[in-house]
Structures are given as structure tokens and as C-alpha cells.
Amino acid sequence: MYMRECRAAGVSATQFGIPFRVFVVCLLNDVDPYGPPGLHYSSVVMVNPFVTTEEGSQIDCEGCLSFPGIKVQVERPQTIGMTWNDMDGGHHYGIFANDNARVIMHEYDHLQGIVFLDHVESLESFTQQAPRY
Ligand SMILES: [Zn+2]
Predict the structure, then answer these.
(1) Could you tell me the residue ranges of all domains in the chain?
(2) Is 75 a catalytic residue?
């Protein structure tokens, strides 16, 4: 997965100035006990996504391609329900949890004009990143 290789988990059209309600996310697949070992991801394009339910909460570190080098602790729902269309107009519904819910909510926020820094309430939320050489 190109996005995972870049340590990105999603990107929205609005980040490129494209005024469409669409994003692509790289989601961690459920573990298949009979499948090959390791983590497996799938890219999902969500057109006209809509969050139908939010449950629980989780706090973890997030970054954003639009804000390189910045990482902050962001609270997100633990589980979300979503409806969306695919690129062919097919309608889908899904429930996503943990990191997948976080990735989707981050991109969904972009479509609402919200960025992850809007969730920061204090400077303690910022995390230091070690420089890479
Ligand atoms: Zn972002």
C-alpha cells in the first residue's frame, strides 16, 4: 500500500483543493486465522460518506499530510457506523472500530473543514517527534 509506505492512512479530496466529498482510507483488515501472517490493509474510496453512529472514545496520536511533522493526541470515537458510495455509485454501510474509526473520522473531518489541530485543547496534546536522519 502506497499510503501505508508513506505512513499515511488516508487523504481527502479537499486536501488538494478539490471540492468533492470523497476520501480514500487505508484500513486494517480483520485478522484471517487461515491467511498469511502480518497486517493486511485495504484501500477504500468513500464518496459522500456520512457518519451514522459514534460510540465510546479513544485517545491516540495523529498526524496529517497537510501538517507535516506535527503529531498530537486526539480523542475520537471508538466505534462508528458509516454510509458511503463507491466510485460506481454503489451504496455501502459499515461499522469500524479502533484505528479504522480514527482514520475515517480524520478524513471525514477534512470534508467538514475541520483539521485534527481543531481537536487540540492544550499544548500538552502535542507530542515530540525525534528527528530523522
Ligand atoms: Zn489530515
Answers:
(1) 2-128
(2) no
